[in-house]
Amino acid sequence: MMLTSSLLVAQTDAITKHNGEIVNGKVLRVIEYAVVFKYDGEDAENSIGKYATEKIVYGKSGRVQEIIEKIVVTSEADWEKVVVLEEKSYIAGLKKGGEVRGKTGMINLQTGNTGDKKAEKKLKRAAAALGCPFILMTSDKTTVGSSSNQFGGTQAIKTGLGYKY
Hints:
Elements: H1 2-10, E1 13-17, E2 22-30, E3 34-39, E4 46-49, E5 53-57, E6 64-66, E7 83-85, E8 95-103, H2 112-129, E9 134-144, E10 154-164
């Protein structure tokens, strides 16, 4: 009986997350942004986002498949490493870190594109300050002319939720 149970464990695939957690089950498929699997003894399909996944060790063959390299953000200086995600499914397996916001000033001489980039940089800096390598974008607005402010300028406002491993 012990031999049979050890053979069954050897057939189990091990999904290693960047936070160190190991999920045992059967990997069904690896798609663009997720790993789809079933827990042992269950029929329901589950998924873990690729950004949360370090590697998969397939139990049957022992093959190791590297998924995504860990992004390390230790301070605001690492803001360029922060990844902006637009789909909620990409954050599966990550933990919410906090709300972040980036915007340009009410009075500025930015063009729409330059203001947008400046707001994104502020957004990424805010996430990096929280130690979050990922942002799930929740709002991306650019106001122009009289709808922006009394001076008729352009203002870009971006908000999101920071996520970490």
